[in-house]
Protein backbone atom coordinates (compact mmCIF):
# COMPACT_ATOMS: atom_id res chain seq x y z
CA UNK A 1 0.00 0.00 0.00
CA UNK A 2 1.38 3.47 -0.84
CA UNK A 3 2.03 5.73 2.12
CA UNK A 4 -0.62 8.36 2.79
CA UNK A 5 0.31 12.04 2.63
CA UNK A 6 -1.21 15.14 4.15
CA UNK A 7 -3.47 15.34 1.08
CA UNK A 8 -5.43 12.23 2.19
CA UNK A 9 -6.19 14.02 5.47
CA UNK A 10 -7.35 17.11 3.53
CA UNK A 11 -9.65 14.93 1.39
CA UNK A 12 -11.20 13.41 4.52
CA UNK A 13 -11.53 16.82 6.20
CA UNK A 14 -9.20 15.81 9.04
CA UNK A 15 -7.00 18.87 8.64
CA UNK A 16 -8.08 22.31 7.45
CA UNK A 17 -7.76 23.40 3.84
CA UNK A 18 -9.54 25.95 1.67
CA UNK A 19 -11.49 23.41 -0.39
CA UNK A 20 -13.04 24.99 -3.49
CA UNK A 21 -14.53 21.82 -5.01
CA UNK A 22 -15.05 18.17 -4.06
CA UNK A 23 -16.91 15.22 -5.53
CA UNK A 24 -16.61 11.42 -5.50
CA UNK A 25 -13.48 11.40 -7.66
CA UNK A 26 -11.50 14.56 -6.97
CA UNK A 27 -10.84 17.32 -4.43
CA UNK A 28 -9.57 20.85 -5.15
CA UNK A 29 -8.12 23.25 -2.58
CA UNK A 30 -5.97 26.37 -2.47
CA UNK A 31 -2.21 25.82 -2.29
CA UNK A 32 -0.81 26.80 1.11
CA UNK A 33 2.06 28.64 -0.59
CA UNK A 34 0.50 30.27 -3.66
CA UNK A 35 2.78 31.05 -6.60
CA UNK A 36 0.12 33.13 -8.40
CA UNK A 37 -3.06 35.01 -7.41
CA UNK A 38 -4.98 31.81 -8.17
CA UNK A 39 -3.12 28.64 -7.19
CA UNK A 40 -5.34 25.63 -6.65
CA UNK A 41 -4.37 21.96 -6.37
CA UNK A 42 -6.73 19.43 -7.95
CA UNK A 43 -6.15 15.86 -6.81
CA UNK A 44 -7.72 12.44 -7.28
CA UNK A 45 -9.33 11.20 -4.06
CA UNK A 46 -7.54 7.90 -4.65
CA UNK A 47 -3.93 7.92 -3.48
CA UNK A 48 -1.64 7.60 -6.50
CA UNK A 49 1.92 8.54 -5.43
CA UNK A 50 3.37 9.60 -8.80
CA UNK A 51 2.33 9.77 -12.44
CA UNK A 52 4.46 6.62 -12.90
CA UNK A 53 1.91 4.74 -10.77
CA UNK A 54 -1.08 5.62 -12.96
CA UNK A 55 -2.97 2.64 -14.42
CA UNK A 56 -5.79 2.41 -16.99
CA UNK A 57 -8.28 2.08 -14.10
CA UNK A 58 -7.41 5.68 -13.15
CA UNK A 59 -8.44 7.16 -16.50
CA UNK A 60 -11.86 8.32 -15.37
CA UNK A 61 -10.59 10.14 -12.30
CA UNK A 62 -7.62 11.67 -14.10
CA UNK A 63 -9.72 12.80 -17.05
CA UNK A 64 -12.08 14.34 -14.51
CA UNK A 65 -9.21 16.49 -13.20
CA UNK A 66 -9.38 18.43 -16.48
CA UNK A 67 -13.16 18.80 -16.37
CA UNK A 68 -12.88 20.18 -12.83
CA UNK A 69 -9.91 22.40 -13.75
CA UNK A 70 -11.97 24.08 -16.48
CA UNK A 71 -14.93 24.47 -14.12
CA UNK A 72 -12.79 26.05 -11.40
CA UNK A 73 -11.02 28.36 -13.86
CA UNK A 74 -14.42 29.66 -14.93
CA UNK A 75 -15.59 30.08 -11.32
CA UNK A 76 -12.38 31.97 -10.52
CA UNK A 77 -12.88 34.21 -13.56
CA UNK A 78 -9.60 33.26 -15.23
CA UNK A 79 -10.89 31.01 -18.02
CA UNK A 80 -10.59 33.75 -20.65
CA UNK A 81 -7.45 35.48 -19.35
CA UNK A 82 -5.75 32.08 -19.15
CA UNK A 83 -4.10 29.71 -16.75
CA UNK A 84 -1.50 26.96 -16.55
CA UNK A 85 -1.89 23.34 -15.42
CA UNK A 86 1.21 21.57 -14.10
CA UNK A 87 1.86 18.08 -12.72
CA UNK A 88 5.29 17.32 -11.29
CA UNK A 89 6.76 13.81 -11.21
CA UNK A 90 9.65 12.88 -8.90
CA UNK A 91 12.87 14.66 -8.05
CA UNK A 92 13.88 16.54 -11.18
CA UNK A 93 10.41 18.09 -11.46
CA UNK A 94 10.48 19.02 -7.77
CA UNK A 95 7.57 16.84 -6.63
CA UNK A 96 7.21 17.32 -2.86
CA UNK A 97 3.93 15.59 -2.03
CA UNK A 98 3.61 12.01 -3.23
CA UNK A 99 -0.10 12.06 -4.00
CA UNK A 100 -0.44 13.23 -7.59
CA UNK A 101 -1.88 16.69 -8.02
CA UNK A 102 -2.57 19.15 -10.78
CA UNK A 103 -1.53 22.77 -10.07
CA UNK A 104 -3.93 25.33 -11.53
CA UNK A 105 -2.14 28.69 -11.74
CA UNK A 106 -3.51 31.97 -13.03
CA UNK A 107 -4.64 35.49 -12.29
CA UNK A 108 -1.49 37.10 -13.68
CA UNK A 109 0.74 36.83 -16.74
CA UNK A 110 2.71 33.68 -15.96
CA UNK A 111 5.50 34.15 -18.47
CA UNK A 112 7.05 31.44 -20.55
CA UNK A 113 7.48 28.03 -18.92
CA UNK A 114 10.87 27.43 -20.53
CA UNK A 115 13.23 30.40 -20.91
P1 LIG B 1 4.66 19.63 -5.73
O1 LIG B 1 5.95 20.37 -5.54
O2 LIG B 1 4.66 18.29 -5.05
O3 LIG B 1 4.21 19.56 -7.17
O4 LIG B 1 3.56 20.54 -5.04
C1 LIG B 1 3.13 20.37 -3.73
C2 LIG B 1 2.33 21.59 -3.37
O5 LIG B 1 1.57 21.31 -2.21
C3 LIG B 1 3.19 22.81 -3.07
O6 LIG B 1 2.85 23.87 -3.96
C4 LIG B 1 2.86 23.12 -1.60
O7 LIG B 1 2.81 24.51 -1.36
C5 LIG B 1 1.52 22.46 -1.42
N1 LIG B 1 1.26 21.99 -0.06
C6 LIG B 1 2.10 21.24 0.70
N2 LIG B 1 1.53 20.96 1.89
C7 LIG B 1 0.29 21.55 1.86
C8 LIG B 1 -0.77 21.61 2.81
O8 LIG B 1 -0.70 21.07 3.92
N3 LIG B 1 -1.88 22.31 2.45
C9 LIG B 1 -1.99 22.90 1.22
N4 LIG B 1 -3.15 23.55 0.96
N5 LIG B 1 -1.01 22.86 0.30
C10 LIG B 1 0.12 22.20 0.61
Q: So, the CATH homologous superfamily?
A: HIT-like
The overall number of domains is 1
How are the strands ordered across the major sheet? 1-2-3-5-4
Distance between the termini: 39 Å
Spell out which ligands are present: guanosine-5'-monophosphate
| Beta strands, count | 5
How would the global form be characterised?
globular
Largest pleated sheet: 5 strands, antiparallel
The helix count comes to 3
Level-2 CATH architecture: 2-Layer Sandwich
Helix content: 10-25%
CATH class: Alpha Beta
Low-confidence stretches: none
- Calculate Rg over CA atoms: 14 Å
Strand-residue proportion? 15-25%
Global mean pLDDT: 97
Task: Give structural attributes.
about 120 residues, alpha+beta, HIT family, subunit A, binds guanosine-5'-monophosphate
How is this structure best described in words?
The radius of gyration is 14 Å and the shape is globular. It has one domain: 2-Layer Sandwich (HIT family, subunit A), CATH 3.30.428.10. Helices cover 23% and strands 22% of the residues. It has a 5-stranded antiparallel sheet, with helices on one face. It has helices at residues 6-11, 59-75, 90-93; strands spanning 19-22, 26-30, 38-44, 83-86, 102-106. It is an alpha+beta fold. The mean pLDDT is 97. Strand 2 and strand 3 (38-44) form a beta hairpin. The N and C termini lie far apart (39 Å). The structure holds guanosine-5'-monophosphate. Guanosine-5'-monophosphate binds next to strand 2.
Amino acid sequence: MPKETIFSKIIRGEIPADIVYQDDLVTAFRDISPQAPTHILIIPNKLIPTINDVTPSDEQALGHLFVVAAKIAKLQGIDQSGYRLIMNCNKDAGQEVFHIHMHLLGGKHLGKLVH
